[in-house]
Amino acid sequence: MLGGSLQSRAIEQQTLPLSSLLRPIPPVLDHKKIDSMVQTLKNETPDFIPTPAPESITPGELPPVDVLHYCSPAGKDFYFAFGGCHRLQAYEKAQVKGVNCKVLKVTKPMLKVYLGGSVDAIVGEELAEE
Ligand SMILES: Nc1ncnc2c1ncn2[C@@H]1O[C@H](COP(=O)(O)OP(=O)(O)OP(=O)(O)O)[C@@H](O)[C@H]1O
Question: Which SUPFAM superfamilies does the protein's record reference (predicted)?
């Protein structure tokens, strides 16, 4: 399935464990949309289609979530999902542990654009030391 944001279209899809994804932004959720996505993940036909309607629906799959991957100088991996809030809630609710993702490697300055002053608290001192 082709998918993901415009920026991530050329990036290959991969499956990451839901438990590895950091979600720093508290979501505002539409539970009907989540339930519709849960039905897709469970290979069911959704009772409700959110607007704007998906271009297509592949049973058992959701479009890839864009994930930023930061690898610290010590070799620790951090995976950040800044969007995809509804999809990630749907994976949780459907108890599907592998998330379809598009992973983009980022540098410390790029990560800081998203996390601002919280960056040190989230990824630890290593980031401040670089
Ligand atoms: N029931 C569904 N089955 C499959 N795909 C769906 C379904 N509902 C929505 N989608 C698609 O999932 C993608 C993500 O939807 P959307 O942007 O609304 O949520 P999100 O990115 O997971 O959450 P947020 O935008 O709040 O971070 C869109 O391409 C949308 O068309």
Answer: ParB/Sulfiredoxin
